[in-house]
Specification:
Layout: E1 2-8, E2 19-25, H1 41-45, E3 51-60, E4 70-74, H2 84-91, H3 100-117, H4 121-153, H5 171-197, H6 203-219, H7 223-228, H8 231-275, E5 288-293, E6 296-301, E7 304-308, H9 369-379
Antiparallel strand pairs: 1-2, 1-3, 3-4, 5-6, 6-7
Helix pairs in contact: 4-5, 4-8, 6-8
Length: 380
């Protein structure tokens, strides 16, 4: 007598779960057990399903019962995250963070869990990193075009610049071409961003995976363990701690990688400016500006003194609110640079008092102040 036995096979990243098979042979009149699934340690460790069926089929010289051909198998996970050493630290009540190696080990285990245990995350991570860096490439492209626009296209005093135009001798068509070169990549970025939010979405997938497995593990607790872990703690972990860990931990890496790429690009352009003779002073306070001659200025910054023909100030503006006795009006709030707190309607929170322009924390840019005031009143 014989029957074929099948069960899920080991799962590997990027591959679907296969089906392993075996054959159970029993002598006539003998009752026995079918063969057990054979996994290597690595294969068993990354099996995709913690619950599966053990099936008997294709009987030969025997008959299978209609209700006893399948057996549901539950894999009991006795492993500790991330290992036995970390479990002992937590069990002893020690605080993590005193030893940098422990934090690195825990972080490494967490990222390994997300990347290689949650289906599809590893390749989505690579795609997301590539898409984010496309924004940095576009940022570098914009900076290059703007520099070219100022140094070549709009430099009407340099006759040699005519030879460097995209359309030799024609600044107008070159400027139009630059405008197209600035706008068209935005459409490409729009589509790639849509793919990132839909096809390559990861945050929701990782949160769901962790919530499902945490809840499944909780359901398999013994009654004594459930008494030590109230259900409200489980709900708190699923509603707050898992989203915080995923969004502030795993997903933060992509934001950091995008910012790092932009920092590298800015550093490159700053170095290029230095190579062209532009000196950049950081954390420098402007002390005074003095006119020496008709077209000569002397600028003092701390211990440094510079002579130049023109001085361009782009240090921001301070709102002029003196003389209005705003300190005597309850509810009107100002920050350290005399800017007034308002909402999206330019409303200060005090009836009939609005603020627009440079006196606002969130001033409305270059829009006409009268139009802003009209829109604000209409919203109210």
């Amino acid at each position: 007598m014989r029957a074929r036995v099948s069960w899920p096979g080991p799962w590997a990243p990027g591959k679907s779960t296969g089906e392993a098979r075996g054959v159970a042979e029993l002598a006539h009149g003998v009752v026995g057990s079918p063969p057990r699934p054979q996994w290597t340690d690595a294969g068993f460790e990354i099996v995709k399903h913690v619950q599966f069926e053990y099936r008997l089929s294709e009987p030969s010289h025997c008959k299978l019962s209609a209700t006893l051909t399948t057996c549901r198998v539950l894999i009991i996970d006795n492993d500790f995250f991330s290992n036995e050493n970390m479990h002992n630290i937590v069990k002893s009540g020690q605080e993590l963070g005193d030893d940098a190696s422990e934090m690195y080990e825990l972080m490494s285990a967490f990222f390994n869990l997300v990347l290689f245990r949650v289906p599809g995350i590893w390749w989505k991570s690579l795609a997301t990193l590539a898409i984010d860096q496309l924004h940095n490439v576009y940022y570098a492209w914009r900076m290059t075009l703007k520099i070219y626009l100022v140094d070549v296209v709009l430099n009407v005093h340099n006759e040699k610049a005519l030879e460097q135009l995209w359309f030799p001798g024609n600044r107008y068509f070159t400027a139009l071409a630059i405008a197209v070169a600035l706008v068209v990549p935005n459409f490409c970025l729009m589509f790639t961003d849509e793919w990132k939010e839909t096809r390559f979405e990861m945050g929701k997938s990782v949160r769901t995976h962790m919530k499902v497995n945490l809840f499944r593990k909780y359901l398999n607790y013994t009654d004594a363990s459930k008494e030590q872990v109230p259900v409200q703690d489980m709900a708190g972990a699923m509603d707050a701690e898992i989203p915080e860990m995923v969004d502030g931990g795993f997903m933060f890496v992509f934001k950091a990688a995008k910012s790092l790429g932009k920092i590298v690009i800015v550093a490159y352009f700053l170095e290029d400016l230095r190579a062209k003779g532009v000196e950049i002073l950081f954390e420098t306070v402007l002390d005074s500006i003095e006119r020496v001659e008709e077209k000569q200025l002397k600028v003092r910054c701390g211990t440094r003194t510079f002579e130049c023909e023109a001085f361009l100030s782009a240090v921001g503006r301070r709102g002029v609110v003196d003389g209005y006795d705003l300190e005597t009006v309850p509810g009107v709030k100002k920050n350290e640079v005399d800017r007034i707190a308002v909402n999206e309607s330019s409303y200060t929170g005090v009836e009939k008092i609005y603020a627009i322009g440079d006196v606002c924390e969130q001033h409305s840019g270059t829009l006409m102040f009268a139009s802003i005031a009209q829109m604000s009143m209409q919203r109210r």
